[in-house]
Amino acid sequence: MDNLDRGILDLLRQNARAGYGDIGSIVGLSASAVKRRVDRLVADKVIRGFTIQVDPSIDGMSTEAYVELFCRGTVAPDELLRILSGVPEVVDAGTVTGSADAIVHIRARDIPGLEAALEKVRLAPNVDHTRSAIVLTRLIHRSAE
Amino acid sequence: MDNLDRGILDLLRQNARAGYGDIGSIVGLSASAVKRRVDRLVADKVIRGFTIQVDPSIDGMSTEAYVELFCRGTVAPDELLRILSGVPEVVDAGTVTGSADAIVHIRARDIPGLEAALEKVRLAPNVDHTRSAIVLTRLIHRSAE
DNA sequence: GATGAAACCTAACCTTT
DNA sequence: AAAGGTTAGGTTTCATC
């Protein structure tokens, strides 16, 4: 993890489709060297994935909920991650302190979409029950990066 | 904007580097047809950009909490917005159904930073109390949040 | 939806430190 | 060894039909 890696990450944050050659000509490496570093960053889980930013209003994905996940016994974070990463409606999730085991932020097209996503989340192992708080008015949204 | 577009968006959300041919074989279109649709979605600003999800521990803002906000009496969403917009650590917030008035997602550099942000939220006149769930393991973070 | 040229990705091999 | 460069081949993209 050096300044070259950070430069590559910055460029990919701005455009995840940039070619290796284009990235290399900016950070000062050959295309191959950039590819090797990107592959390593993905293997090391520094880059968790490649995704798109979608306009929520145009897409109609405006129904949101914060869902507390209560599990039986111990929960392996890796197992939760495996299940949740397969649900595209899950925008954000983490295991937390307090009585709930995890909190999951879901965004769906409408209430039926929310319910369907919730069903998929409940497939996670050892889930006892969930408690949802549906978002009425979205107040703040600051982009993560 | 039809179900084909939505299917393409879902696939790109999971892997923005998926090839047009791969996407087409899933949604039932040729590679060319998929490219035309993706190009249109980008031109129409439905897709705002292609980006990567980076391990938050890299950028040094890795301490997070979900905070339930309980206010005295009835509080208008505008009032809550006024309170929360003065706290830059607030990444995401909305009024919700349930006993809490709002849920606030805070991201800070460390625990003292988190506490300082919470203090700023609590100083607001109508805030009665807060209940925080500190994030232990970040499972999902899609930057399209 | 299909076609063909151009661009790109990828892996193997070579050079340098 | 470790990290970057070069080259060749296969695949994908992209414009055109």
TrEMBL record, chains A, B:
GO MF annotations in UniProt: sequence-specific DNA binding
GO biological process: response to amino acid
Domain HTH asnC-type, chain residue ranges per copy: 1-62
UniProt KW keywords: DNA-binding, Transcription, Transcription regulation
PROSITE patterns xrefs: HTH_ASNC_2
Keyword set includes Transcription: yes
Upper classification of the organism: Bacteria, Bacillati, Actinomycetota, Actinomycetes, Micrococcales
The UniProt record lists the keyword Transcription regulation: yes
Protein name according to UniProt: Lrp/AsnC family transcriptional regulator
GO CC field: cytosol
